[in-house]
Amino acid sequence: NALKKSVKNIDSYTHVRGESLYVDDVIVRQGTFHAVVFDSPKAHGIIKSIDYSKAEALEGVERIFTCKDIPGKNEIGGIIHDEPLFAENEVHFWGMPIALIVAKTEFIARKARELIQIEIEELPVITTAKEAKVKGSFINAPRSFSLGDTEKAFSSCEYIFEGETFSNGQEHLYIEAQGAYSEPLENGNIKITSSTQGPTSVQKTIANVLGIAMHKIEVDVTRLGGGFGGKEDQATPWAVMAALATYYLNKSVKLILNRHDDLRMTGKRHPYESTYKIGLSKDLKILAYQVEFLQNSGAAADLSPAIAERTLFHATNSYYVPNVLSKVLSCKTNLPPNTAFRGFGGPQGMFVIESAIAKAASKIGVSARQIQETNLLNENDTFSYGQIAKKVEAKNTWNSAKDIFDIDALEDEIEYFNKNNATFKKGLALMPITFGISFTNTSMNHARALVHIYLDGSIGISTAAVEMGQGVNTKIMQIAAQVFSVSLDKIKIETTNTTRVANTSPSAASSTADLNGKSTLMACNSLLERLKKVASENLNVLEENIKLKDEFVYINDEKSNLSWTELISKAMFNRVALTENAHYATPEIHFDKTKEKGHPFAYHVYGTAIFTTTVDCIRGTYEFDSVKIVHDYGKSMSEGIDLGQVEGALVQGIGWMTMEEIAYNSNGKLLSNALSTYKVPDVFSVPKSIEVIPVETDGNDMAILKSKAVGEPPLMYGIGAYFAIQNAIKAFNPNYKVKFHAPMTPEKVLMSLYSE
Ligand code: LUZ
Ligand code: MOS
C-alpha cells in the first residue's frame, strides 16, 4: 500500500547526502555571466544622477542594464501594476533595484557595484502603517466585511473593551536565497531555472518585460530550499533580470542573491497595527467585534490586497461572532513590498481577536480560556463572509486537547509551581485555529497533471506543484502508486516546467497537494480505465473483475499471470495511449467581491494547541516546556510529512510571536540585516516537547484522498506562545498592564516583569 503512513519524503536521501539540486547547483554553460543587483541606498527620493562609468570600466564587467534597456514594460506588479523592475526617476524603498551589473564573475560584479555613484534627493520616508494612514498613503481602496448589526449589538453588551495591537513582520529566511539561471536557446527563446513558487508568474512577467510571447520562455524548477511564501511573487524579479541580460547578450546569466542582498531587497510578512472593539454578554458570549487592520504593505502592492483579504477571512479565528465589522487598509510605506508568508494575513488577523479576548478576560477577571471556549464555532454557524461552517472540528479539537492532555492537572501543576517559585513563573495558554483552504481568489484554484507510463512500466509525472520541502512530490507519488498499485520506485516526479504544465497557479495557499494531487488522481484513473480494458481483452474476463495489485493484474482476488510490465507492453502493442493529462478545478467555491459574501473555501482545517512556558523573571528569558496539539489532518496520507509540517509551522509561528524582530530605522534602512541581529528559533529555543495527536474524523472529500491541507494552518498555533508568556508575566507582576505588541522578545518580557 503506497499510502504507507511511514512513507519518507523522497527527497530525504539526496538531502542528507548533500546531493539535492538547487538553482546554484545548475551546471553552468561555458561563458556564463554572473550578475549582481545595484539597489537604492535610500528609502525614498528622486534620482538626481547615476554615474556608471567607473563600474563599466572595470575589467571583466560586460554590461550594466537599467530601466532604459527594457524592451517591453518596466512592470512586474501582479495584482496591481504599480511596481517597476528597475527604478526610473524615483526610489521608493531601501534596496529597490536600479540596475543589473553583468560580469565575468560575481566577485567582479560586486566590485563594480561599489564603483557606482548615485545622487539622490531625499524625500520624506514613511515606515509605519499608522503614518501612512495619517498621510493618506494607500495601495488601494479599503476592504470591509460585515455580518449582523455591530452597532446595535454593542448597545446590548454587558462588557465592551477597546484596544490596539501590533504584530511585526517576519523574515522568510528560506535557506536557499532568491536566484535564477537563464540560458539562451535558439531563435531568441530563453530557458530559466528559477527558485520560484510560481513558474507561470515568472514566465508571464519575463514575456511582459521583454515584450515577447510567453511560448518563448521556458521556466523550470527542480525544488526550492524553502519558500514560505517569499517566493510566490518575489522570486520573479531576479529571473526577469537574468532573462533580460540573456536577451541582449545571448549568453547564460546566473543571478543568485547573497544573504545580505536578499534580506535588504525582499519583502517580508506584513507588520499590522490594529484597533479593535469587542463586546461580550454577561455569560461571556462575544456579541460584537469591530476591527480595523492597518497593513504595512510596503512600497508596492505585490500580493498585499490578497493578503489583506485573508486577514478579513480569519479575523474571528475559531469563534462564532454574530456581529462583525472588519476593515483593512493596505498602507503604502517606504519598506520593501511586503509579501506572502505562510498564513498569508491570517495569523495577523487571528492575533488581534486573541488579544481582544485576553484583554477582556483580564478586565473581567476570568481566564481567556473561558471566553475562548464559550465562543467556539458550531456546525452551521455563519462566517462573516457568508460561508456556512460545515464539518466543524473546533470544539472537537478543543475538548480532545483538554481531555487527552488533562488540562486541569496541567493548570494545577502550574499554579503549584508559581506558588512555590519566586523567580521563575509558568504560564499556560490555549490556541485554537481555523484556517480556510483554497486560494481566496476563486479563479486560481486549478491545476493540471501530465502522466506518462513508459514502455517498461515506469511512470513520469509532471504537475504544477513546486517542491519546496513540504513533501508534495512524495504525496503525488503516493497517489499514483496507489492507483496503479506499483511501488514508489516505479514513479518519478519530473521538474515543474511550464512547457509540460502550463498556466499554473503558484504553489501556495496550502493547496498544492490538493489541486495537483486531484489532477494526478484524475489522470491516473483515466489511464487505469484504459489499462483495465486492455487486461480484460487479454485475459478474456469482464473489465469489472479486473484489479491491479502489487504490480500484477488480478481477476477478482486471484492473481493472473499478467504483470504490470506485461500489461503495459500489451497496451503499447495495441496502440493504446499511455499518456494522460487532467485538469482539476475545485468545485463549489465562489465569492462575490461586490457583496463580500460567498463560499470561498473548499473546507477548513481546525486544531487546538496547549502551550506551557517558564519565564526566568530575573533575566526575562523564557522557554516552552511543552506544546500539546490536537490537529485536524483529515485522514492523513503521509503522517511523517504532515507531522513535519505541523512541527515546522509551529516553530515558525513561535518565532514570529517571540524572538524574530524585524527592525528598520526611521530612514527605512533595515537594521536586522544579518543573523547576528535577526534571531530565529534554533534547537535550543524550540519547545522541550511537542506532542501532536490527530483528531479522528472522516476527513473531507474536497481534500486529496481526504488528507487535509497542512502547510499553513499550524503556523497559527504559534500565537499561543505570546499569551503563555503573558500569563507567566502576570503571575509574577500582577500590576502588569497587558499590552499586545508582538514579538514578545526577552527584552520586552523583562520590561513587562517590572512595569507598573
Ligand atoms: N496566495 C494567494 C496565498 O495568492 N492566495 C491565497 O489565498 C493564499 N493563501 C494563502 C497563502 N498564499
Ligand atoms: Mo503562500 S503564504 O505562498 O502559501
Question: Which helices and strands, and how do they pair?
Answer:
Elements: H1 12-16, E1 33-39, E2 45-51, H2 53-57, E3 61-65, E4 90-91, E5 97-103, H3 106-114, E6 117-122, H4 129-134, E7 143-147, H5 150-155, E8 159-167, E9 179-184, E10 190-194, H6 199-210, E11 217-221, H7 236-249, E12 253-256, H8 259-265, E13 272-280, E14 286-298, H9 304-313, E15 323-332, H10 346-364, H11 368-374, H12 394-404, H13 407-420, E16 424-437, E17 446-453, E18 459-463, H14 472-484, E19 491-493, E20 496-497, H15 512-539, E21 546-549, E22 552-555, E23 558-563, H16 564-573, E24 579-585, E25 590-592, E26 597-599, E27 603-616, E28 622-631, H17 639-658, E29 690-694, H18 719-732, E30 741-742, H19 746-753
Parallel strand pairs: 1-12, 8-30, 10-11, 14-15, 18-19, 28-29
Antiparallel strand pairs: 1-5, 2-4, 2-6, 3-5, 7-15, 8-13, 9-10, 9-12, 11-20, 13-14, 16-27, 17-18, 17-24, 21-22, 22-23, 25-26, 27-28
Pfam families: Ald_Xan_dh_C, MoCoBD_1, MoCoBD_2
InterPro entries: Ald_Oxase/Xan_DH_a/b, Ald_Oxase/Xan_DH_a/b_sf, Ald_Oxase/xanthine_DH-like, AldOxase/xan_DH_MoCoBD1, AldOxase/xan_DH_MoCoBD2, AldOxase/xan_DH_Mopterin-bd_sf
Protein name: Xanthine dehydrogenase large subunit
